[in-house]
Amino acid sequence: MVTNLEKIILVFLGFFMFSCVEEAPRIVPDVYVNFSINIDLPLYSNLQADNNAIIVKNQGYNNSGVIIYRSFDNFFAFDATCPQHIDKPTAIVLDDKGASGTATCPVCKAVYTFSSGGQSSKGYPLKEYKVTKTGSFLYVSN
Question: Rounded CA gap, 40 and 141, in Å?
């Protein structure tokens, strides 16, 4: 027969076990990000088509840039710093001028897929930022 004390202990252990789920590690340090772009401008014309990406330079960690990716009517933003070797910050490079929805690190050759949340072919995913769309403007922040 299970006593009330044993029930309390079991409930406490169950709560403790399920509350200790690890979050994804934050490899790329937090920096202040807050900018907007007008996607109707020719400079950002790649964002008119699905599965395309552009890079906004001089933003994000170490000013490596922030990648903005379009998937249907949704926009996502990722720091362009490769998280696989943060000790020597390197900006990843868009594949196929942003038309393939992927980017590659020139140092470690990790390939990042934007449609899967910036997941890497090896190691850590890209740091993601918040994107809000109002009319033809995208606001990127953290």
Answer: 20
- Those residues whose C-beta lies under 8 Å from the C-beta of residue 108, and which sit 6 or more positions away, are 82, 84, 85, 90, 122, 123
CATH assignment of the domain containing 121? 2.102.10.10
Q: Which residue has the tokens 């400079």?
A: 43
The reported pTM is 0.81
pLDDT tens-digit map of 16-59: 444 444 444 558 999 999 999 999 999 999 999 999 999 999 99
Residue 104 domain flag:
yes
**What are 69's strand-pairing partners?**
53, 76
- Residue 40's domain comprises 26-141
58 Cβ neighbours under 8 A, 6+ residues apart:
65
